[in-house]
Design a protein that fits this description.
single chain, mainly alpha, two-stranded antiparallel sheet, 20 helices, globular
């Protein structure tokens, strides 16, 4: 039985309490501040995120349950929470100048970013289907509003409507699957599911519940064939929100996926491993092939993000501690290079230039050499060229697949990485070899410079010296319910 409520529960969820209080502080500050002082809201938001990180750090080696066993305070949760907070920090840094150009209200914008981050943190800690659902909805509702934050923009309105409708539909599918798991086991706790259903006879209802949960989570990570929302949403949403959505939402969904399948349903590995094998191949291939023809950089990065979801699923298929470790490493690496690429796109947004088309990147090297060099590194890292961090991430994912016996899956991953180089190099060609694009001069704000520097430093350092990250990821993977190392591999 899970432990009863105790005052220690408040300490275990202290980072979430600090973040919630900070979000309310931002909202109240927006109301009482004068219009001229509202740019300070970004600094208040960064202070809230910084305080949450400081409060989170003591939990790096925690192993406890909170709120009557609804939350796991472990290394796995710590790893993802820290990733969410760092992604939010970089997003806020790149948002300041963008809000000025678009004329958006900063208070509600930053409040919703903090709310989305709060939902992600509960998703990472959730070891109960109810907790996971509450966290997922907190994150999703915030993103529904943020995607449509450019109210006069028809593309933003269309993206928000599509995301809301498809997100609601996918949530219904996920809830149907969760309710079936509850009906079959009598519990919503994942660790109790792992013991209760393991002794039950498998039937069509259990397999159907598993498939429905896969479909619901597949929507959140934009896995094929549940990816149809991603290109339109990425293109229409405010660019900093596109960056945060592509990193934070995807990482949170991956955390839930690992919680449910590796920790809650390891006894069904022989069912979900081949299912994820197929999804990984489809997602990698469709994402990379569709990206080849895109002229809009945000849509191209949307299909690229779909392909990267396929790479992550390789680690899920491996189903071992090394596979989970590789996923954690890859999510951090992906966050830095993806956020950095979007930061360059945000930088190109001026009053007279949208900045999200390939032609807007033309001659960037001659207009802003530092930004062009940073984008060059981000593109090479996304393509997996050594010695970038992207190469190290893919190396560990493919290595985990080979170690588990999925050699052909690793080969397909390598082939897809080679295909992706075409559209990444295409961006480089526009920046370095095309004529300079017209438009007002590019001005980089101090906050944007910090966002680009942090993203670039993360991508460079993790490519040259990934050891500490790998060690932290391995410890975090081992805390995942103690079952990651016992999930078997199938001879594909």
């Amino acid at each position: 039985m899970p432990p009863g409520f105790s005052p220690a529960d408040f300490y275990n969820i202290l980072p979430e309490i600090v973040l919630t209080s900070g979000a309310l502080l931002v909202l109240v500050t927006d109301v009482v501040m004068s219009h001229a002082s509202r740019p300070l809201l970004g600094r208040v938001t960064l202070a809230v995120l910084g305080a949450t990180i400081l409060v989170l750090l003591p939990f790096h080696d925690a192993d406890a349950l909170a709120s009557q066993g609804l939350l796991a305070i472990d290394g796995f949760a710590f790893f993802f929470k820290l990733l969410f907070l760092l992604a939010a920090v970089i997003t806020v840094l790149m948002s300041a100048s963008y809000l000025d150009v678009e004329g958006l209200r900063a208070g509600a914008y930053y409040f919703l970013i903090l709310c989305a981050t709060l939902g992600m943190m509960f998703m990472a800690s959730g070891i109960d289907l109810i907790t996971i659902f509450v966290g997922l909805e907190t994150m999703a509702v915030a993103f529904y509003v943020l995607v449509g934050f450019l109210k006069p923009n028809r593309r933003s309105n269309e993206a928000a409507v599509k995301y809301f409708l498809l997100g609601t539909f996918s949530l219904g599918i996920l809830l149907f699957g969760m309710s079936m798991l509850y009906g079959l086991s009598g519990t919503t706790n994942l660790r109790e599911l792992a013991t209760t259903l393991a002794t039950e006879e498998r039937g069509p209802l259990l397999i159907m519940a598993l498939v429905l949960v896969v479909a619901g989570i597949g929507f959140k990570i934009a896995a094929v064939p549940f990816h149809m929302w991603a290109p339109d949403v990425y293109e229409g949403a405010p660019t900093p929100i596109t960056a945060f959505l592509s990193v934070g939402s995807k990482a949170a969904a991956v955390a839930v996926l690992l919680r449910i399948f590796v920790e809650g349903l390891p006894f069904l590995a022989d069912v979900w491993q081949p299912l994820f094998w197929v999804l990984a191949v489809l997602t990698m291939t469709v994402g990379n092939v569709a990206a080849l023809t895109q002229s809009n950089v945000k849509r191209m990065l949307a299909y690229s993000s779909i392909a990267h979801a396929g790479y992550v699923l390789i680690g899920v298929v491996a189903g071992t501690t090394r596979g989970v470790t590789a996923i954690l490493v890859y999510m951090v690496v992906y966050a830095f290079m993806q956020l950095g690429a979007f930061a360059v796109i945000v930088m190109l947004r001026r009053t007279d230039v949208v900045g999200d088309e390939l032609k807007d990147l033309s001659g960037l090297y001659f207009r802003h050499p530092a930004a062009a060099c940073a984008m060059l590194f981000f593109m090479l890292s996304l393509g997996g060229i050594p010695p970038t961090a992207g190469f190290m991430g893919k190396f560990w994912l493919f290595g985990a697949a080979i170690e588990s016996g999925y050699v052909w899956l690793a080969v397909i991953g390598v082939v897809n990485s080679a295909i992706s180089l075409y559209y990444y190099v295409r961006v480089i060609v526009f920046m370095w070899f095309k004529e300079e694009a017209l438009g007002s001069p590019i001005v980089v704000s101090p906050a944007m410079a910090v966002a680009l520097t942090v993203s670039l430093a993360g991508a460079v350092v993790l490519g040259l010296y990934p050891g500490p990250l790998f060690e932290l990821a391995e410890l975090s993977a081992q805390s995942l319910g103690g079952v990651a190392g016992r999930v078997g591999a199938l001879p594909f």
